[in-house]
Specification:
This protein is of the alpha/beta class. The chain has one domain: Immunoglobulin-like, CATH 2.60.40. Helix content is 26%, strand content 30%. It is built from three helices and eight strands; from the N terminus they run αββββββββαα. The strands form two sheets. It has a four-stranded mixed β-sheet, with no helix packed on it. The termini are far apart. The structure holds copper (II) ion. Copper (II) ion binds at residues 28, 38, 61-62, 98, 100-101, 106.
């Protein structure tokens, strides 16, 4: 009887912790909702450690590839044109791009809990910006939302 109760408690507990990890969606779009082109929506997203993001490309030419990640985090590259879910298990700020469209400013920022690596990330961003021809302002626009 006690064993049964313990088992039920364990099952309930595991269900609760699974429910706490949220799944977010980021769209990788050729045309954004406000007329912007080659854009992630949302371009900046803040999530919690353990959450996942489902990257949803609007067509076969988009994906999501990390450029700067917090130390200890695994880099990620989603397949072209395929809806893919990525788990974020290390806190800090992540900068990622659509591999073929970095020059067009198709980038995004994910903040997972505290922005522990923001100084290193901002230093790294300057080099990357130099290779971008369009929508350069998105770097500052998204990074200004990191809190
Ligand atoms: Cu793209």
């Amino acid at each position: 009887m006690l064993l049964k109760k313990t088992l039920i408690m364990m099952i309930l507990f595991s269900m609760t912790s699974a429910a706490l990890a949220a799944e977010h969606t980021v769209k990788l779009l050729t045309t954004g909702s406000n007329g912007q082109t080659m854009v992630m929506e949302p371009g900046f997203i803040k999530i919690s450690k353990g959450d996942t993001i489902k990257f949803v490309p609007s067509d076969p030419s988009h994906n999501a590839e990390s450029m700067i990640t917090p130390s200890g985090a695994s880099p990620f590259t989603t397949p072209m044109g395929k809806e893919t879910t990525v788990a974020f298990n290390t806190h800090g700020v992540y900068l990622y791009k659509c591999s073929p469209h970095l020059a067009l400013g198709m980038i995004g920022v994910v903040q997972v809990d505290d922005a522990v690596n923001i100084t290193e990330l901002k230093a790294g961003v300057e080099k990357i910006k130099a290779t971008v021809f369009m929508n350069k302002q998105r770097f500052d626009e998204y990074l200004s939302q990191v809190k």
